[in-house]
Design goal:
The protein is of the alpha+beta class. The chain is 32% helix and 29% strand. The protein has 10 helices and 15 strands. The chain starts with 12 loop residues before the first strand and ends with a strand. It binds adenosine-5'-triphosphate and L-homoserine (HSE).
């Protein structure tokens, strides 16, 4: 089993002013139907971020998605991830200047918060490397750091590694005098080689949906038949994504989360049904309300018009490479 990195560190090195790093991070779609919390795919919609060390304070210039609503101080998700990443690498910065150009829509099931976390840790990695403090973080470290920080390693791993991913968590057990306890969740991931014929289309509504709200709609226990159903379909999803795209329709049916979330996003549920009736492997993207189609053919104009009629924009997107860091 691959080793998860250990999250330790301090803030021994204060980085000099004038170090800059640039990051480009893709959006992602989690679950891919049945693979609740364990499958994801990177999508070619990108946030770009430039982070520079400055003498003091937090300076944030943001354009694009979320620019009107995100905080411009230490509460900013990317700032928090950069700070945490520097701490993990044994350093700190007196001040940070961020330039964010955001194209990933927020709260639509396209992994914006995971991408923000990944971009922050990737920026910290670049700053540490540019300053000569340490080697850049490995992909495994980025998955662990961003997964732990943001809570959705299925999104985070896709944004780190690109392509499609399988993620899993492991809680190593530690014996202490009071008994055996789980010490810490380790987040691990492996990439899949996506069949070259598969393309992605996302249908994005104007309406937002909070992931924490729609997670709260899920039951704590499910019928065994539904669990078995999803086991077989998520195993099939790995086959369909890599070697058998003709199985995508069967491989993207889910009984663990979409049925429970459907009442909170009726248009998404309606669009998934309409697309599947037309032969497309359609599913809610992550926690919704966007809808993802994986197919070998482009969607038709009729589908585009149908989606538009119920408030969704049609975005054909590439299956993306993972995060890029330059300094
Ligand atoms: N680039 C960003 N910069 C700062 N904050 C961000 C950024 N992207 C997302 N966020 C924060 O994350 C929130 C969205 O998180 P949420 O988990 O609800 O949606 P999501 O990540 O877009 O969807 P999902 O996790 O279902 O794919 C935003 O409201 C904002 O507070
Ligand atoms: N697997 C998570 C993804 C959230 O982005 C969910 O469906 O809640």
């Amino acid at each position: 089993m691959p080793e998860a990195p250990s999250v330790v560190g301090g803030a021994d090195n204060v980085l000099l002013e004038g170090i800059s790093v640039r990051v480009r991070v893709p959006a992602s779609s989690a679950n891919l139907g049945p693979g609740f919390d364990c499958l994801g795919i990177a999508l070619g919609v990108y946030d770009t971020l430039t982070v520079s060390t400055v003498a003091s304070g937090i300076h944030i210039e943001a354009t694009g998605e979320g620019a009107d609503s995100i905080p411009r101080d230490e509460r900013h998700l990317v700032v928090r991830a950069v700070r945490r990443g520097l701490e993990y690498g044994g350093a700190s910065a007196a001040g940070l200047a961020l330039r964010c150009v955001n194209a990933i829509p927020h709260s639509r099931g396209l992994g914006s918060s995971a991408a923000a976390a990944v971009s922050g840790f990737a920026a910290a990695s670049g700053l540490l490397a540019a300053a000569g403090v340490r080697e850049p973080f490995s992909d495994a470290e980025l998955v662990q750091l961003a997964g732990e920080f943001e809570g959705h390693p299925d999104n985070a791993a896709a944004s780190v590694l690109g392509g499609a991913v399988v993620t899993w968590a492991d809680s190593p057990l530690d014996a202490n005098p009071d008994g055996v306890v789980a010490v810490r969740e380790a987040y691990l991931a492996r990439g899949l080689v996506v069949h070259p014929g598969i393309r992605a289309t996302v249908f994005v509504p104007e309406t937002e949906s909070s992931t924490s709200h729609t997670r709260g709609l899920l039951p704590d226990t499910v019928p065994r038949a539904d669990a078995v159903f999803n086991l077989s379909r998520s195993a099939l999803a790995v086959v369909a994504l890599t070697t058998a795209p003709e199985c995508l329709i069967d491989a993207t049916v889910d009984r663990l989360h979409q049925p429970y979330r459907a009442p909170s996003m009726p248009q998404s549920a309606e669009l998934v049904v309409a697309l599947r009736e037309r032969g497309y492997a359609a599913m809610v993207s992550g926690a919704g309300p966007s809808v993802l189609v994986l197919s070998t053919d482009a969607v038709t104009d009729e589908v585009d018009a149908l989606a538009h009629g119920i408030g969704f924009a049609t975005w054909p997107v590439e299956i993306a490479e993972g995060v890029e860091i330059s300094w």
